[in-house]
Amino acid sequence: MNTYRDKNVIKGLLHKIREKAAHIKEPLNIMEVCGTHTMTIHKHGLKQLLDEVGIHMLSGPGCPVCITPNALHEAAIDLVSTRPDLFLATFGDMTRVPTGKDSLQTAIPAKGSRVHIVYSPEESLDLARQNPDKEVVFFGVGFETTIPSIALSAKAAYEEKLENYSILSALWIIPPPLKALLEAKDTNIHGFLYPGHVSAIIGEKPYQFIPQEYGLPGAVTGFEPVDVLLGINNILDQTISGEPVVANVYARVVRPEGNPLACKIMDELLETKDAVWRGLGKIPASGLTLRQTYSAHNAEQKYGLLIQGESGDLPGCRCGEVLKGIISPPECPMFGKECTPDSPHGPCMVSFEGSCLSYYKYSSRSWR
After folding, report:
1. DSSP letter assigned to residue 314
2. How many Cβ atoms sit within 10 Å of the Cβ of residue 338?
3. CA 88 to chain centre
4. Which of 104, 124, 148, 269 is an S-S bond match for 138, by CB 3.0 to 4.6 Å?
5. Is 261 exposed, middle or buried (0-12, 13-18, 19+ CB in 10 A)?
6. CATH number of 66-173+260-302
7. What is the spatial order of strands in the sheet that 270-277 belongs to?
């Protein structure tokens, strides 16, 4: 039996959470930063049970597909639709994000060009190796979890002299947007569930500014229902004691120092840049781009792309507000009507980790 899905364990944790929540006068808004946390909460029917005891879970900017601004998606569409003999490779979710120029899935490629769905950067490299007469651009998206492997593909291309391989970077780091959320005037967050996958890379230290500067509790946790409840239970303990910290209830995977080798790879190959996040605007030092040594494999520089600001969500789409935790997906008038998984109006209904998709698929689930 999987202990982390054991109903008796879940029942016991919910009882503890209910008892502790009774000692807190106001409802507690806890943001789950990672989209996989959102999916777990809804898939296992925990949202309603937590709401009943005054624990309101807010979806955060934890889906890289969702926070990538339309301007980047449109640059990818322009590349494959206007340049001949170019293969645009990316992950499947990225091809379905709707923009003012439609999506990569509906783009009409130029002569000899096409869109390839891949499952790893290595597949993109293989495309470049196998098709020396084609330009291969990998539209690479991800947080710290997948960034090292994406960066290593550029290093491999550099060392192998694969001049036909480049990366269109949609690489984001998690701590800066958390600071941006806390500085925003329209958010109301009382604690964070920090993402387990990202934390396995960066460790605990990058979150320390949150308890130290903002006095808010938080817990690094995993993605099973018991993991999520352990994190919430720990945040309640910190709230009651008045002693906020960065707790780690996912020690079976996350070490305090993270993964030093992965961090070293990112530092060696990449540098930070100011980046635009959907819903959050431009955030200082929140994105990553290849260092100058590898500039020949930077698609923005190679093709002279001018990606400026944010072209904006489609009319009526409120994904930006969902990603800030200002509204829940059902509060968007388009949710489940004009906007569905079969006909998405924004990326939050596209991505497997998108909060709108999680709400849509699992809103009727009950743990009981």
Report:
1. P
2. 14
3. 21
4. 124
5. exposed
6. 3.40.50.11740
7. 114-117, 86-90, 135-142, 165-172, 281-290, 270-277
How many separate helices (H) and strands (E) can be counted in the chain?
15, 11
Per-residue pLDDT, 368 = 47
155: enclosing H helix or E strand: helix 147-160
Position 44, amino acid: H
∠ CA 40-43-45, nearest 5°, is: 100
132 by Cβ neighbours in 10 Å (0-12 / 13-18 / 19+) ranks as exposed
| Edge-to-edge strand ranges of the sheet holding 191-195 | 55-59, 28-32, 191-195, 218-221, 246-248
Q: Tell me which residue has tokens 């507000």.
A: 321
Look at residue 332 in the predicted model and tell me its pLDDT: 95
Residues in Cβ contact with 324 at an 8 Å cutoff, skipping those fewer than 6 apart: 60, 61, 181, 184, 186, 187, 279, 280
pLDDT above 60: residue 233: yes
Task: Let me know if 198 is exposed, middle or buried by CB neighbors in 10 A (0-12, 13-18, 19+).
Answer: buried
Q: Which residue has the tokens 């997948």?
A: 146
List phi, psi (to 5°) of 255: -95, 150
Could you read off the pLDDT of 294-307 as tens digits, one per residue?
999 999 999 999 88
| 99 alpha-carbon distance from chain centroid | 19
- Angle CA 124–128–129, to nearest 5: 115
Say if CB 352 and CB 34 are below 8 A apart: no
Element (H, E) at 226: helix 225-241
Q: What single-letter DSSP state applies at residue 190?
A: -
Query: Do residues 287 and 266 make contact, with C-beta atoms less than 8 angstroms apart?
Result: no
Residue spans of the domains in the chain: they are: 66-173+260-302
Contact at 8 Å (CB) between 124 and 47? no
